Automatic annotation (TrEMBL):
The entry's keywords: DNA-binding, Transcription, Transcription regulation
Residues passing through the membrane, by range: none
InterPro entries: ArsR-like_HTH (IPR011991), HTH_HxlR (IPR002577), WH-like_DNA-bd_sf (IPR036388), WH_DNA-bd_sf (IPR036390)
Organism: Paenibacillus filicis
Classification via Gene3D superfamilies: Winged helix-like DNA-binding domain superfamily/Winged helix DNA-binding domain
HTH hxlR-type domain segment(s): 18-116
Protein's recorded name: Helix-turn-helix domain-containing protein
Domain of life: Bacteria
A Pfam family that the UniProt record links to this protein: HxlR
UniProt entry tagged with the keyword Protein biosynthesis: no
The keyword Transport is annotated on this UniProt entry: no
Length: 131
């Protein structure tokens, strides 16, 4: 029996322990990534974030901003006025994600067309199998 037999393989990737899964838990939501991109250039008001991100509902924007604030990735600043002015900015922890997010963005620019080609080829082959 080889060293890589099914009996000898022990899980080495854990949803609760693995560092990758912990990071993905934070940034894998599409709205999270888009909000981080929106805040990349500095402080921005709630309404402006909503205008910059196509398709985000007020509910999703609010929920995602709260989660990012809870995670320590953004700061929420309230200026007392009537109505109050609420603006958001990346915290130093959030800013530390920018280089990684930019690498993902560059990867998408460089490689996403290949993903689309692979999907089309796969879908074509599956449709041929079922014909």
């Amino acid at each position: 029996m080889s060293a890589h037999s099914k009996k000898s393989i022990q899980p080495d990737i854990s949803l609760t322990v693995c560092g990758y899964s912990k990071v993905l838990e934070i940034i894998s939501n599409k709205w999270t990534a888009l909000i981080i991109y929106a805040l990349e250039d500095g402080r921005i008001r709630y309404g402006e974030i909503g205008k910059r991100i196509e398709g985000i509902s007020k509910k999703m924007l609010t929920q995602t901003l709260r989660q990012l604030e809870r995670d320590g990735l953004i700061r929420r600043d309230v200026t007392p006025s009537i109505p109050p002015i609420v603006a958001y900015s990346l915290s130093p922890l959030g800013e530390s994600l920018i280089p990684l997010m930019l690498e993902l963005k560059q990867w998408a620019k460089t490689h996403y067309s290949l993903v689309e080609q692979a999907r089309a080829a796969y879908d074509h082959s599956v449709s041929q199998e079922h014909s």
